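Q: I'm a student working through a structural biology exercise. My instructor gave each of us a protein and asked us to get a predicted structure, then write a short paragraph describing it. Mine is NAD-dependent epimerase/dehydratase family protein. I'm not confident about reading structure output yet, so if you can add a plain explanation after the tokens, that would really help. Here is the sequence I was given:
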Amino acid sequence: MRLLESELFQQDLSGVTALALPWEKLRGASFMISGATGMIGSTLIHVLMKKNREDGLGCHLLALGRNAQKGKSRFEEYWGDPLFTFIQCDIDDVENLKESLRVAGLKHVDYVFHAASNTHPVAYATDPIGTVVTNIIGLNNLLEFAAKAGARRFAFASSNEIYGENRGDVELFDEKYCGYIDCNTMRAGYPESKRAGEALCQAYIRQKGLDVVVPRFTRSFGPSMLMSDTKAISQFIRKGVEREDIVLKSAGTQNYSYTYVCDAVSGLLTVLLLGDCGEAYNIATRSCDITLKDLAALIAKEAGTKVVFEIPDQVEAAGYSRATKALLDSRKLEDLGWRARFDMETGLRHTVEILRSVQ
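A: Happy to help. First, here is the predicted structure for NAD-dependent epimerase/dehydratase family protein. I'll explain a few features afterward.
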């Protein structure tokens, strides 16, 4: 069974499409999404295509990705739909991007969401250059296109990683917090390039008048996650789906914020449609704050298995975050009217149940 055939996943998507957002801003608009086959990008596409088909939104989705075969696998249900176009391109290569958009006949776009990025430890460790390049050069290429194409708004997918390590002076990170990052490490490429990416967005606002917002995602999870994802929660979930013991590769005292993917997408849409230009917004919920060991135990309980400890290999360990406590303050987003629908237990249960049904 395919993901979209899951009744539970459809219910979760409906929870987003039913939100009282100013959807009219997207009516008949063109919406470009980089990183379209990723967890958040693909779920956003599922939400908007559902809104198109059920409510006649008429929003034309332009999904950017490097691999057309992967794109077709993800979006087979939309492949012949006139409101969906997959554009195979490399956003880091400006000439390839320009040629791909020219072949697609694309000169104007209303909204752009840049979600392409390496987002997990093995990717950081094996492709550190690509991690930095996509978050800065790829971003610049899309910002430049958006400015020339007269885009109404650009959204840059930033990360909780930009806060660095907790200095021990706050319980929650608000959008102004700035913790420590050792920039002279391979692992620093991800948070530092996200910081630089946010600064680049501010430059385009000031110099070219582009309207940009910055949703800052925390550690997200859900049934649209990629099976290649090596984040701890993704590995835990895969084990839980297979009813295997959950492997914990540390003492598990790290305390992080998480977000179920449909809440992450509803937060993104809230920022896109209601946020102020130039502002960053944390997308997180206190109901999904949890230590790594408690997270492992929760999934093991759901799977009917146990937690076991294992030493990570050198490559994987090199990509791990050093942050031990990273809890996000979501009040700024909540002031826009956003509320999370899923606590950690419910989000994990839905994720495991849906993934088991689509195996």
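A: Here are two points you could use in your paragraph. Residues 193 and 199 are 10 Å apart (CA to CA). The domain at 3-221+260-286+330-343 is CATH 3.40.50.720 (Rossmann fold). It's a good idea to check both against the output above yourself.
Q: Great, thank you!
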